[in-house]
Amino acid sequence: MRSYPADYELVSPANLSSALNLLHSEPGKWTPIAGGTEIMVLYGAGKLAARNFVSIWGLPELTGITESEDALRIGAGCSYTQLRNHPSVQKHFPLLAQAASWTGSIANQNRGTLAGNIINASPAADSPPALLVYDAELELISAQGTRRVSYTQFHLGYKKTMLVPEELVLAIHLHKRFNAYFSYTRKVGARNAQAISKVCVAALGQLESGRIKDVRIAMGSVAPVPMRLTQTENLIHGQAISDQLMESAKRVLTSETTPIDDIRSTAAYRTRVAGNLLEEFLRAFAQTESAE
Amino acid sequence: MSKESIVGTSVLRKEGAAKVCGKARYIDDLSLPGMIYGATVRSAIPRGRISSIAFSDGIPWHEFIIVTAKDIPGKNRIALIYDDQPCLVEEAVNHPEEPILLLAHPDRHLLPKAVAAVKIEYEELSSVHSIEASENQQTIIWGKDNIFKTYIIDKGDVDAAWAAADFIIEGDYFTEAQEQLYIENNGVIASYNLEEGLTVWGSMQCPYYVHKALLGITTLSEDKVRVIQAETGGAFGGKEEYPSILAAHASLLSMKSGRPVKIVYDRLEDLAATTKRHPSRTRHRTAVTKEGKLLAADIEFTTDGGAYATLSSTVLSRGTIHAGGPYLWPSIRVRAKSVATNTPPYGAFRGFGAPQSLFALERHMDRIAKTLGIAPEELRRRNLLKQGQLTSTGQEIRDPIDLDHLLNRALELSNYHEKKARFERENPTSLRKKGIGLTSFLHGSGFTGSGERYLNSLVGVDVTAEGKVRVLVSSTEFGQGTNTILCQIAAESLGIDYDVVEMAPPDTRIVPNSGPTVASRTAMIVGKLVHSAATGLKQTLLASRLLSENYTTQDFIEAAKQYIAANGTLQSLSRYEAPPNIYWDDEKYRGEAYPAFAWAVYVAEVTVDLTDYSVRVDDFVALQEVGRVLNPTLATGQIEGGVAQAIGYALYEKVVWDRGSMKNNQMTNYIMPTSQDIPPIRVFFEEIPYAYGAYGAKGIGELPMDGPAPAILNAIAHATGEDFNHIPLLPEDICEQLTAIKTLQEEEVLTQ
Amino acid sequence: MSKQLLTLRVNGTSRSVKVHSMARLLDVLRNDLQLTGTKEGCGEGECGSCSVLFNGVLVNSCLVPAMQSADAEIITIEGVSKCTRHASIQQAFLECGGAQCGICTPGMVIATVHLLEKNPNPSRQQIEEGLNGNLCRCTGYMRIFEAVEKAAAAEQIEAGAAR
């Protein structure tokens, strides 16, 4: 334990409004901490720059998953365990349930939150690709009110997001539009559990008369941010899936992604595997019937 | 329970109840009144000289105890084999993380902050970071030539064999560093006072190694130094020699402060600074007939020892002797050397050189088989040693071992032929290629050559005045079952219940030196001494007539108490005696290298997924002949654990280096298998009792480390048609090699 | 920063300690409450040797800010050992050889308690997943899986007998 506890401060407001007022009153001073599965690792390693923390763990306004006929509202404080076990998440957003199930370990899923994962903004995070293809909306809140942003706009650059210092994520909104879609997801990590992804992918698609009517593909660990592969999507949209199309798609994928060499893996491996995953998706996608 | 059936049954682990209830107390669970905490300031560069040391503001330095090399009363060396490793740097730094000075303070949490506040300036010198760089000797970092040790084995006439060969097959094989990754980090508590002297408790394998090292550092006399092993949370060799350094550090702080001092590493430090498995490079050149008879081998075996010699010579020795494996070599030459680099010194790790040289050999055997067009199992069958034949050091195989039978049984247990054929049929149409591969190998139990004579182990069995029956050994428990099997042996030899026998505390004040807990020697050699000491004690009681034949456990204890009342003590000691016909020539490296060998055939079944180039081991068969299985549950557990650790060695555990610094010194980034990464590991034993081992037992602790890596890579070669000769073999490596081939093929197509 | 009062329930008893506001739950358990059965193997939430139950849920206590456990119910290995409800888990670990060096064992037992409370009859695959955050270097996991299966069977029998 390399940090000196006396140098740090944690306050635990009783409700969201107190937390937001604190963030508003001293902008930039307070770092929110929910489950702590990221912050506490840095803390233990003596690498935590921030000193003042406001605990948002267990705040009632952040918990819960509520459902309406056409949407799901996931409270920012929901743990991965709650997410993966929720019947509506499993039914309507299987890519997200799947991503939650292979994040970390059982113990880390019990404490890690989807919102925490989002604002930590690691390009290797498991859930963002699913959120990207599901067109998630984030509801952000501060002392001044709420705003909604499309998740596809949320990441501005490596570990930089639209969130301003006094804001918190309040909820993640998902629209139930994808039940008729073919869905595919895969994570490539160093081992079967407790692995940070080397490449991960979430994809949705619909065929009509043998051609691609709609397709959404997102990947992690191939760019400084979790990304939608819009160029690849554009290339294959409206096309029939063939070996040639897959080869072209892989080339476009390679050109629009910028994976790196890092402590876990290499750019060459990530590039090659990303292409293989795309191909695996498209081959399976090609087997599906049209939406009717 | 019948007294006859203690050895060979799965009696419960002696200290097991405490462990499953969380009551077992490891070093960081212990504390002493007035205890303070210690920490180590370490070098940031691989090689150079210290030019200045400054203590930054913001830390109450006056509250700290600070120890440098100048505070060492005795010799600033950690006594081991060469005595080249300083306890603390004086001026010259030879590896990253080399200990420079020590700090102690009552506030444990303040220490890391203080360590970070010590600013050291260096004059950097050029450093050496690979075997090749060390060999070319442009920069000499150790001795005259960077070479810690060399050995040569030379049997028959290798040079003459090339002419007679139908084929000459070459291959180079590489193994990288591996971290022991015991789940409990290194830790000690040292307490010095003038009257009692120095007492050290610690997580360790060898209390007497620590004891010896402390004598040199402190100049205290033998009776003024006491070392006690604490419950130890895993070791695997990583706590064989390393604890001597840590004990010296804590002792120096305690001597200077007058307080007990605890030093416990965190994972970041333990990974970065402590010993790992020696990396290796092996070059094979083999002469064979077209029928697959091995004629000669010329093997060059080189290990990277890191910055100081530590145990490099003995690791090299074992690797050298095992380099020829379980085969008959009419001629064989092994030229071995261990070289220095500016890395934290490498050290003991389960297998101790054999996993490295056997990896190379067993991969090379498959290469030979492929070249000749002979099935891998068939090639082995034609060359496996038989009783009466000689090993590469000229040791006659005296045991009636039938390796042909062992091979057949392993093939049957793994359904080898059926699977091999099926995979070959199904692979062409699948992106998930399946493969099956095997290895045959051996592992020498006990110290090499005259080592056991040199250790001169002493073991005792006694009964206390209260009627407690105790085994007195310095052999330690760290999960492998020492406590249990030695008590089983004692109980059976004494003819009493297992439950009343216990281990005397592993305390150098109480137990004699039964040698280090290493080299797979505890069951075989120390166990045998426990048996003879116990037998001696029983005979003493019987001879005294306080006990008559057909006694119960209660009778025994009663008689013992009466004996003690009359005579004061009841103790029996037994000293090691070498079995007959053990001759070892240290100069020529010839003769009986080990008292006994355990033999094995392992089979691995894998799937290589060409989408992400990952390898999954789907099934693993581990068949071995071990003399005698003293406790089936414990023995099976040893094999399973060793196989899992070796799967890590083969496929997962890569140390990422940057000029001698481990960059991935966190469990997040140093990858060991989780519960979801392990195949079914199916363990089978055969027993040919070894006359000089306890109840026939030979060693098994290290054996399972030798087989899995080559078996897995042989299976991967079967699955993909591609040879990989370097471990750890990561998906990135497989991807690189397979896609390079594919690119080459695509280029060929384009140019046609 | 000065220390603050933290009140939490540990193994069924209310405890109050003065701790730094960013103290780790692991350190509070081991140092302030002298419950040393919970271990620190990595400090980064990877090895699971610091596992405890936090309001019935498995967590790595090295990653939990102690102040977040205010008024929470914490169960450590000492608590499991005190009550007989899961004695069959510990007995199974003992009989099957599920503990070798024992350092991962408290965490493994806690993870097993958590698994069996949620899923009294887990498949081998579910057991593998349930323990995926608890690293063991000694056993290769095989004996641990057997121990969990044996414990699950024993608890089923007990549950059946209790009806």
Gross CATH architecture of the largest domain in chain A: 2-Layer Sandwich
Strand neighbour order, sheet with most strands of chain A = 4-5-10-6-7
Average the pLDDT over all residues of chain A and give the rounded result.
Answer: 96
- Number of DSSP helical runs of chain A: 12
Class from secondary-structure proportions of chain B: alpha+beta
- Total strands of chain A: the figure is 14
CATH topology of the largest domain in chain A: Uridine Diphospho-n-acetylenolpyruvylglucosamine Reductase, domain 3
Helix content of chain A: 25-40%
Main beta sheet strand tally, sense and closure of chain B: 7 strands, mixed
CATH superfamily of the largest domain in chain B: Aldehyde oxidase/xanthine dehydrogenase, molybdopterin binding domain
Q: What's the CATH topology name of the largest domain in chain B?
A: Aldehyde Oxidoreductase, domain 4
How are the strands of the largest sheet of chain B arranged? 3-5-1-12-9-10-11
Average pLDDT of chain B, to the nearest integer?
97
* Low-pLDDT segments, ≥5 res of chain A: none
**Number of alpha- plus pi-helical segments of chain B:** 20
Structural category of chain A is alpha+beta
Order of helices and strands of chain A: EHEHEEEHHHHHHEEHEEEEEEEHHH
| CATH level 1 name of the largest domain in chain A | Alpha Beta
SSE topology:
The complex is a heterotrimer of chains A (292), B (752) and C (163).
Chain A: E1 9-11, H1 16-25, E2 30-33, H2 39-44, E3 52-55, E4 65-67, E5 71-75, H3 80-85, H4 87-92, H5 94-101, H6 106-111, H7 114-120, H8 128-133, E6 137-142, E7 145-150, H9 151-154, E8 155-157, E9 160-161, E10 168-175, E11 182-188, E12 199-208, E13 211-220, E14 227-228, H10 230-236, H11 243-256, H12 267-286
Parallel strand pairs in A: 1-3, 2-3
Antiparallel strand pairs in A: 4-5, 5-10, 6-7, 6-10, 8-9, 11-12, 12-13, 13-14
Chain B: H1 16-20, E1 36-42, E2 48-55, E3 65-67, E4 92-93, E5 99-105, H2 110-116, E6 118-124, H3 131-135, E7 147-155, H4 158-164, E8 167-175, E9 187-193, E10 197-202, H5 207-218, E11 225-229, H6 242-257, E12 261-264, H7 267-273, E13 280-288, E14 294-306, H8 312-322, E15 331-340, H9 354-372, H10 376-381, H11 403-413, H12 416-426, E16 432-445, H13 451-455, E17 458-463, E18 469-472, H14 482-494, E19 501-503, H15 522-543, H16 553-567, E20 570-575, E21 584-585, E22 590-591, E23 596-609, E24 614-625, H17 632-651, E25 657-658, E26 661-662, E27 681-686, H18 703-706, H19 708-720, E28 726-727, H20 731-751
Parallel strand pairs in B: 1-12, 8-28, 10-11, 14-15, 18-19, 24-27
Antiparallel strand pairs in B: 1-5, 2-4, 2-6, 3-5, 7-15, 8-13, 9-10, 9-12, 13-14, 16-23, 17-18, 17-20, 21-22, 23-24, 25-26
Chain C: E1 4-10, E2 13-19, H1 25-32, E3 51-54, E4 57-60, E5 73-75, H2 77-82, H3 87-96, H4 105-118, H5 124-130, H6 142-162
Parallel strand pairs in C: 1-5
Antiparallel strand pairs in C: 1-2, 3-4, 3-5
Helix pairs in contact in C: 3-6
